[in-house]
Design goal:
The chain has 169 residues and is an alpha+beta fold. It has one domain. The chain is built from 3 helices and 7 strands, in the order E-E-H-H-E-E-E-E-E-H. A hairpin with a 3-residue loop joins strand 3 and strand 4. Helix 1 packs antiparallel against helix 2. The longest helix is centred in the first third of the chain and has 36 residues. It is elongated, with a radius of gyration of 20 Å.
Length: 169
């Protein structure tokens, strides 16, 4: 029996894969228990890592909500209630779709940005004070793609799915 794990992704594996040769004997019960324990540890680690990233994002969201005009030592507008409320909704939708942001920060354009990093691929979702939401995906190769998403939940879900696919590529 040979253990095989995913090698082409940065995300935690969702399972443990075993390749068994034809007519190979079943693994011993003790070995099965070790595999099950390891599997649970991996799942808990992925869950806790994701939870920690969402907790950090919500903490940062509260911190950017109290910024004042000129917070960047220039003339940047702080995020307003429109940006805060929409960013909070998007965080909830991201969590429901298991896509934690790598970082949440205020935008110098006035609003809140959520950054995603997976290997050499990046995505940035910015919620503007006007309520507009813009997404950019880019990597080390190719041209960046930038688009605006409308205010519907379906459009945000489509953008989340597109970000996920891009990051996994």
């Amino acid at each position: 029996m040979q253990l095989i794990g995913p090698t082409d992704t940065v995300r935690p594996p969702v399972g443990i894969y075993c390749s068994v040769e034809p007519n190979a004997p079943e693994p011993a019960e003790a070995y099965k228990r070790v595999l099950q324990e390891w599997h649970m540890a991996v799942l808990q680690s992925a869950f806790l890592t994701s939870k920690a990233r969402f907790d950090d994002a919500r903490h940062r969201l509260k911190a950017v909500a109290i910024l004042r005009h000129g917070w960047d030592s220039y003339a940047a507008e702080p995020p307003n209630d429109v940006a805060y409320t929409l960013a909070s909704t998007i965080l909830d939708e991201l969590e429901a779709n298991h896509l934690p942001p790598t970082r949440l920060m205020p935008s110098v354009e006035g609003g809140i940005g959520l950054a995603f990093v997976e290997g050499g691929n990046r995505a940035y979702l910015e919620v503007c004070n006007t309520g507009e939401t813009v997404v950019a995906i880019y990597g080390t190769q190719g041209e960046p793609e930038v688009w605006e998403i409308d205010a519907t939940q379906a459009a945000r879900k489509a953008a989340i799915d597109r970000i996920r696919v891009y990051l996994a590529a």
